[in-house]
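Obj: model holo form, ligand = S-adenosylmethionine.
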Amino acid sequence: MIRQFIARLEKVVSHSRWLSALYIAPYKKVLDREIAIANVDSDDVVLNIGCGAIPFTAILLAQKTDAFVYAIDRDLRAVKAAQRVVGKYQLQDRIKVVLHDAVEPFSHDVTLAFLSLQAQPKAKIVDVLKETMRPFRLLARIPAQRYQRFYDAFPEMEAKKNAFHNMKAFEKTLYIEE
Ligand SMILES: C[S@@+](CC[C@H](N)C(=O)[O-])C[C@H]1O[C@@H](n2cnc3c(N)ncnc32)[C@H](O)[C@@H]1O
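Output (holo structure tokens):
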């Protein structure tokens, strides 16, 4: 239910540049911590899985690091809205929004995958990434304890680094490198 609510909310908010900026603002520090634990830089090509209608993860990654981001979503309406938002931010040369379900292998080489809280099924997506990415580098947001039942569980994996956040829905991000 929370997942569907957020997906719908993002589609509504995406129509306004002003509301989109308000929606994105609380994530700026989150992205700073995530970028730091994974050492994301301008040489990276990032696969942002489950970008939603307001692809704030992709936007902040591109703005803060100059990395190239493939922002993917399996929902066509989210993809169209995200393309519009990326255009408003004039980031079309840094972010390509693509309709794609992450359970299928992605057709371009990437150096880092970034799994959104709502992406699912997480275990299958991780298996596909492991088969197709060398080296395997992943950032994955983990829900706060009390919201865990609303999200697909992330498989047991050892994190190289963690970033902790004071956000309602998610408490940390794992950085995994294999
Ligand atoms: C509501 S968004 C939130 C993401 C947020 N805007 C961000 O920048 O991190 C989560 C999206 O994940 C997408 N999604 C869930 N599972 C997916 C999968 N297997 N492949 C691609 N997109 C997926 C949903 O369609 C939804 O639009």
